[in-house]
Design brief:
four-stranded antiparallel sheet; binds zinc ion; alpha+beta; five-stranded mixed sheet
Length: 644
């Protein structure tokens, strides 16, 4: 076996597949493998939990840790109590009636769990140097390993897949003492082939390898037009998922069991590429399964050329804030650079329309479900003498929330028809058909929305990283903000909240992509503390708490200037980053434009606003704002206070 000595970069290629084209026997085997793989993952969790249990017991025996454990026990008791309350709410009220909200309780649990983790880490610190604890830990670890080896020997999972499960588990089980949750089986999963020593792309296309094969497609396909290319790149992949012996039985042997899937090889693989891992992934998508082939490929040609892009110049500061401008746009962020340019990052009406479609589908599905639920509830309660299977399948119908329980009921009902059920049965069948259709539609639309947004963000961050030397973002915890109070709401009449805008805007994704692009281009990605970026006036330094968070144009009480508050925040981020020389900052504040270094480019879909110095902006006609917000009745702000 060759050791990994290569320094070549790795990339993951993902290709869409159609469901496997294999015999029923192999398909059954494939499904079994997914189930074994899932079970193996849960076995790993079980073993880890045992190890942690042992570690906790050792620490509990330490007199020093007793007070901490008293607190831990109390926290656990509180969590259990809240869980019981949530269960009571969920089980106690039928879906058809107004259900008390349990989400606030969920939040309490989350914060308690955080405290619990903190307590555990305090315990760890307290007992870390104790030799008795160390010895016991070592023993617990050795037991874990011994049991892991047993489990590995006992699993029916084919070898590449269990190695991959172990690798994934290692990632998941970082240091800690708390118990890990098991995962529920949704018939999803990955089957994996580890290609030890690597398999060159050419070998993979040769059809000779006994692990992974892809039928080659002619080279000229890549030079064709898009439509022809998409047709030409249809092919098949075969991945080994097991073995047969000489008698043809599924057992240790030399004959591979292939899982074969139609594949759309929409990207050319690098000629010098070496495949290290191959995964066939199945994921529930609506009520259907989506199949994908993932190839982890290493190649020298992934290395960027010596100078990937002209050296970046200057700094860009990006302020993340999300709100509806009106029905036509969601503002995701605002940027300002050290050359005096600035502009907004918006999701346009087209995107919002896409999100609204998903919302509408969700709503319509839930209405249809409530309707069928109340009809069936009446029927089953009125029906006498139900067959046992049907009785069981329709138990607690009033409490159901998930559509799949209705799908299941239909399946059971089909086998257990009773007298006089025709109308209701037909109603459920009709509901089922329609709901599956809507479910599909919803899943596809949601995926399309996500892709569209990702595409816009990728282009934008690519431009930022290729232009500037430093890209600065605020170090805000976006998940915390998402849960925060419903401020910053745009238009209250539409009932849309900041939370909703944030979900759609996915500012965290924008920031993540910016970081990745910076890494790719070798630029500096800077995170600055978020404090006061929107409260301090960039121009005069005056600080004031703003009451109206939804106001876009702010007039500073210190200097009298009126400006877009997001623009002000972006400028403050530039200053806090300490990547912009003080002279430049002074020029920006004075409205004197430093010499433009990079040519202004089309940053987002719209061109960046023409630079207008602050003293001109406070003139009666604030063109920039009026244009950007697209409202003919933009507020006009009379000049006031001193101009520089
Ligand atoms: Zn000011």
């Amino acid at each position: 076996m060759r050791r990994k000595t290569s320094d070549a970069p790795t990339r993951i290629y993902t290709f869409g597949c159609k469901p496997p084209q294999v015999s029923d026997e192999v398909f059954e085997y494939y499904e079994d493998q997914l189930w074994y793989s899932h079970r193996y993952a849960n076995t790993l969790i079980e073993l880890k939990n045992e190890q942690r249990e042992a570690m906790r017991a050792t620490r509990r025996a330490q007199p020093k840790a007793a007070p901490l454990f008293a607190e831990i026990d109390q926290l656990n008791a509180e969590i259990d109590k809240i869980y019981a309350e949530i269960r009571a709410i969920k089980d106690g009220t039928p879906v058809l009636e107004a259900r008390p909200k349990w989400e606030p309780l969920g939040k309490v649990v989350k914060s308690l769990k955080k405290k619990l983790i903190k307590k555990y880490s305090e315990v760890s610190k307290l007992t870390a140097s104790n030799p008795a604890v160390k010895a016991a830990d070592k023993e617990a670890y050795e037991t874990y390993w011994a049991r892991l080896k047993e489990a590995r020997a006992a699993t029916l999972t084919y070898w590449g897949t269990y190695t991959a499960r172990e690798k994934a588990a290692k990632e998941r089980f970082k240091a800690g003492l708390g118990p890990i949750k098991f995962k529920r089986y949704e018939r999803n999963g990955l089957l994996t082939m580890q290609l030890q020593g690597g398999l060159s792309v050419a070998e993979m296309f040769s059809g000779q390898d006994l692990r992974v094969q892809i039928d080659p497609i002619p080279d000229e396909v890549w030079s064709r037009g898009r439509n022809q290319r998409r047709k030409g790149c249809r092919t098949h992949v075969r991945m080994r998922v097991g073995s047969r012996n000489a008698k043809g039985e599924i057992a240790r042997g030399h004959t591979p069991i292939w899982i074969e899937l139609p594949l759309l090889l929409h990207r050319q693989l690098p000629e010098d590429g070496v495949v290290k891992w191959a995964h066939v992934k199945r994921e529930r998508h609506g009520h259907k399964f989506k199949y994908e082939l993932l190839l982890v490929i290493e190649a020298q040609s992934f290395k960027p050329a010596v100078s990937p892009a002209p050296a970046g110049k200057g700094t860009i500061g990006v302020d993340l804030g999300w709100r509806y401008q009106d029905d036509k746009a969601i503002r995701v962020a605002y940027w300002a650079d050290s050359f005096g340019q600035h502009g907004a990052v918006d999701l346009d009406a087209y995107m919002i329309g896409g999100f609204d479609v998903v919302r509408g589908l969700k709503k319509s599905r839930s209405e249809r479900q409530v309707k069928i639920q109340s009809d069936l509830d009446a029927f089953f309660r009125g029906a006498r003498k139900l067959p046992d299977a049907l009785k069981e399948a329709s138990a607690h119908l009033r409490l159901w929330g998930a559509p799949k329980r209705f799908y299941k009921l239909l399946n059971v009902w089909r086998e257990n028809r009773i007298k006089g059920d025709e109308d209701f049965f037909a109603a459920l069948e009709a509901w089922d058909q329609k709901d599956r259709h809507l479910d599909d539609w919803q899943a596809n639309q949601a995926r399309r929305n996500k892709n569209r947004r990702a595409d816009q963000y990728r282009k934008l961050t690519h431009l930022w990283a290729s232009t500037y030397a430093h890209v600065v973002f605020e170090d805000v915890d976006l998940t915390r903000l998402a849960r925060g109070p419903k401020t910053e709401s745009g238009n209250p009449s539409t009932g849309r909240t900041a939370r909703d805008a944030m979900k759609r805007a996915a500012p965290g994704h924008l920031r993540l992509l910016a970081k990745e692009m910076c890494d790719k281009f070798g630029r500096e990605f800077v995170k600055v503390p978020a404090a006061f970026t929107s409260r301090d006036c960039f121009f005069c330094g005056h600080s004031e708490p703003w009451e109206d968070r939804s106001e876009e144009v702010h007039r500073c009480a210190g200097c009298g200037r009126a400006y877009d508050r997001d623009h002000n925040a972006a400028l403050n981020i530039l200053r806090t980053s300490e990547r912009v020389p003080p002279e430049t900052l002074q020029m920006l504040a004075d409205g004197k434009l430093p010499k433009l270094q990079p040519k202004p480019k089309d940053f987002s879909r719209r061109r960046p606003d023409k630079y207008i110095p602050p003293f001109e902006r406070s003139q009666p006609q604030p063109k920039v704002l009026a244009k950007r917000r697209g409202t003919p009745t933009a507020p006009t702000i009379p000049a006031q206070g001193g101009t520089p």
